[in-house]
Amino acid sequence: MNSYEATLFETLQETSLIAVLMIEDARDAIPVAEALLSGGVKAMELTLRTDAAWEALQEIKRGVPEMIAGLGTILQPEQVTMAVAAGAAFGVAPGMNRRVVEAAIAVGLPFAPGICTPSDIETALEFDRTFLKFFPCEPSGGLKYLDAIAAPYAHLGLKYLPLGGVTEQNCAEYFKHPHVGAIGGSWLAPKNLIASKNWAAITENARRAVDIKLAIRPV
User: Any idea what the CATH number is for the domain that residue 194 is in?
Assistant: First the structure.
């Protein structure tokens, strides 16, 4: 892991909260990023589940440069090259794809592959990955399951980014967990609020989540 990548992941762990969202219309990118920042959320992952994600990232980089904006659902090596060209601060994947991780390392893109088993973790370690997306966290067993699979590797200092089932109601338990570096929150800016352009509601969601985080992780 290069120094830029290590620093970026340290920053994400300090913020501890990454908004995960799907944007259907790139014109919504700047308003939603501004709404999240107004609520104190400083990092976001745009999932590549919509064609608008690429343009949305570029709009955010141009219009809201203080937002740490990365791309998720990176499934192919070619998308890694495109992510760097689009200005992604980091990349995330739902699984541990060797070819994708190799591509990310080759171009220096900070990258968190997805893990769900000890075998996934060990494969990630082959590529010096120490910041790992735990997905899908709640359907897999949540924190109890994470305790079990993370225990053999705890001495290596691995940190996990749980996504999939984390909500405002249970995020406090995730923030408290020593293995959790940061959490991904899709509830912060859900599709219905973006579609209705309810930026105030997104800001309020962000503010409540940040208040929960600060009560547990004050730094």
Answer: 3.20.20.70
Q: Which residues of the chain have pLDDT under 70?
A: none
Active site residues: 45, 133
CB 127 within 8 A of CB 102: yes
Q: Which domain holds residue 36?
A: 3-216
Q: What pTM value is reported for the model?
A: 0.96
What pLDDT, on a 0 to 100 scale, did the predictor assign at position 198? 98
Q: CA-to-CA distance for 51 and 79, rounded, in angstroms? A: 13
- Give the span between the Cα atoms of 3 and 170, in whole angstroms: 33
68-86 pLDDT, tens per residue?
Answer: 999 999 999 999 999 999 9
Count: domains in the chain = 1
Residue 132 CB neighbour total at 10 angstroms: 26
